[in-house]
Amino acid sequence: MGKSRRTVQIVILCLILVLGGYAITTSVSGSNGKPKEGDQAPSFELLGLDGQVHTSDEYQGKAMVINFWGTWCEPCVKEMPALQAQADKWKDKGVQFVGINVGEDQMTVENFVQQVGVTFPIMLDRAKNSVRDFGISPMPTTFFVSDTGKISTIHIGQLDLGTLDAQISQLAKQP
């Protein structure tokens, strides 16, 4: 009985070591499924403030600026006028802006969008599926996606007008 118990303990210890090693390796190597620059952007299917379900396929062939934000996030709120200004500037040049609100109710988001004067499409990610797929943490996080669907740049944190313009200019030049 003692020998059998010892064998079970050794097997359990080996399993713990293997699983621990795997967890550490995937964490360090970054193979946690988060998209990186150069990867294909994850797809999305989200309810828009217009009441329609929108998918990433609608924007195929266009360069995109995908911004994850929340009304409770001060840097998100501060960068929204710059995003709107750039959306206005680039809308006729093949660059599509999409705002993805994280986890808030439609009325809160609609009130904010109306107050700030945002006119580019805003989607609601109430279940946080896109947050998971895009690997978002922290906010705001903005993905610059080429017209081929590849992630050109990922910017974490608040964007200003100059940085946005420079990133979009680079994005618009990409083949």
From TrEMBL:
Cellular component GO terms, alphabetically?
cell envelope
Thioredoxin domain location, by residue?
35-173
Subcellular location, principal: other
At the top level, the lineage of the source is Bacteria
Q: Does the keyword Hydrolase apply?
A: no
Q: Which Gene Ontology molecular function entries are recorded, alphabetically?
A: isomerase activity; oxidoreductase activity
Q: What's the source species for this entry? A: Paenibacillus barcinonensis
Mind telling me which Pfam families this protein's record contains? Redoxin (PF08534)
Q: Where in the cell is it found?
A: Cell envelope
Q: Which PROSITE patterns match?
A: THIOREDOXIN_1, THIOREDOXIN_2
The UniProt keywords, alphabetically, are: Cytochrome c-type biogenesis, Disulfide bond, Isomerase, Redox-active center, Signal-anchor, Transmembrane
Q: What is this protein called?
A: Redoxin domain-containing protein
Biological process terms from the Gene Ontology for this record are: cytochrome complex assembly
